Amino acid sequence: MAFIFQSDDGFPYRWPTNDLVGPKSIISAPPREHASHYHRPPLLGCREDVTALDEVRQFSWFKRQTFDVVRMMDVQCRKKLVENFRAKLERRKRKQHKWCDLMDELMQIEDENGNKLSDDEVVDNIVSLIIGGFESISTACTWAFSYLALHSDVLRKLREERRALSKSKIGELITSEDVTKMKYMSKVVEETLRLANVSAFVFRSGDQDVEYQGWKVIAWLRYGSTDSRNFEDPLCFNLDRWNKPAKPGSFQDFGGGSRICAANMLARMQIALFLHHLCVGTENPDVKTTYLPNPKPADGLKIVLSRM
Ligand code: HEM
Fold it and tell me: Superkingdom, according to UniProt (predicted)?
C-alpha cells in the first residue's frame, strides 16, 4: 500500500469520476497542478450545542450534524451549491473586505509564481470539502459510539479524562490545544478509525505496470489495518495497541503520499469533539453490520443521549 501511495508516477491517481466533486477540485487536480496549487489551509469545525435528551438513530443524526459542521444543504444539489458559492464569490470580489473563512483562504492562496486559484477551483474545492467531510465523519462517529457502548471500561476512562478537562474549563469552549492534550481520547479516535474502515479503498491507475497495463488498481485500505501482521488480534477494539505508534505504512485509512486526506487532522479533531460532548449516556446496542460500501450498523445505531 505504502509503495502505491509513494509511486505517483507508477500508479497515477485516477478516480473513475469527478462529477460530484467537480473537475477543478483538489481531488480532481492532476499531479503538477496539485503540487503547485495546494498549500493546506488550516480547518477546524466545532459545535458546542450537541446535547439532546432524546432517542436518536445515531447514523442519520450524525449525518445531519456533519452537514451543519461543513455547511451542507443537500448532497444531491451540487449544481445549486455551485451556483450559491459562485454568487457569493462574485459578491466578495466586488468588495474589499476580509472574511477569514475558507472561501477567503482559497481566494488568497498563491503558488510560487503568484498565481491564484481560478473561480472554478475555489468553488469546486468548497464543494469537495463538503462532500468529503459528510459521510466519513458520520460513519466514524457512529462507530466510535458503538465501540464505546460495547466497552464500558473504555467509556469510563474517557469520561474521567473528560471530567478532568471540564473542571479546568468552566464556562469556556474547548480548544484544539485541549483536544491534543486528551491522550486517551486520541487512542479512542485512532482505534475507531482503524477498526471502522471509514474509507475502505482508493483508486489508482496501473498505466506503467507491466502485468496490469491499463487496469484500474483499487488499493484496499481496509487490508492494512486488519492484517494480523500489522495489528495483533486485529478485529479486537484494543486501545493498548496505541501505546506505541503503529508500524510504518500499516495504518493508512487517510491514504498517503501526495494525496493524503487533506483533512486528516480535522477529521480526528471532529471525532474527538463529538465524543467529548457526547461520551455520556450511550446504551449497549445490539449492533448488526452491513458491509457495502463501508461497514455500517444495519439499524442506524439506536442510542439514547442524556445530560451528565
Ligand atoms: C474519517 C474521516 C476521513 C477519512 C477516513 C478520509 C479518507 C480519505 C482518503 C483515503 C483520501 C485519499 C484518496 C486517494 O488517495 O485517492 C482522502 C482524500 C481527501 N479527503 Fe478525506 N477522509 C476523511 C475525512 C475528510 C473530511 C472531513 C474532509 C473535508 C472536510 C476530507 C476531504 C478530503 C479531500 C479534499 C481529499 C483529497 C486530497 C487530495 O487529493 O489532495 N476528508 N480522504
Answer: Eukaryota
266 CB under 6 A from ligand 1?
A: yes
Question: CA torsion 93→94→96→99, rounded to 10°?
Answer: -50
Give the residue among 56, 224, 216, 37 at the shortest CA–CA distance from 121. 37
pLDDT at 283: 53
ipTM above 0.85, yes or no: yes
Peptide bond connecting 293 to the previous residue in cis, omega within 30 degrees of 0: yes
CA distance 227 to 237: 14
3-state secondary structure of 217: strand
Domains assigned to the chain: 1-20+48-55+137-279 (1.10.630.10)
Q: How far is the CA of 231 from the centre of ligand 1 (A)?
A: 23
Mean pLDDT, residues 37-60 taken together: 44
* pLDDT over threshold 70, residue 213: no
What is the secondary structure of 72-90 as a DSSP string? -S-TT-HHHHHHHHHHHHH
Distance in Å, CA 21 to ligand 1 centroid: 12
Residue-wise pLDDT tens digits, 217-259: 777 888 888 899 999 999 999 999 999 999 988 888 888 888 8
Ligand 1 atom nearest the C-alpha of 38 is: 41
User: Is the Cβ atom of 267 under 6 angstroms away from ligand 1?
Assistant: yes
Q: In whole angstroms, what separates CA 4 from the centre of its chain? A: 21
Position of cell 469527478?
18
- Residue 179 CA to residue 210 CA, distance in Å, equals 47
Virtual CA dihedral for 279, 280, 286, 289, nearest 10 degrees?
A: -20
Query: Residues 146-178: pLDDT tens digits?
Result: 888 888 899 889 989 988 888 887 777 788 888
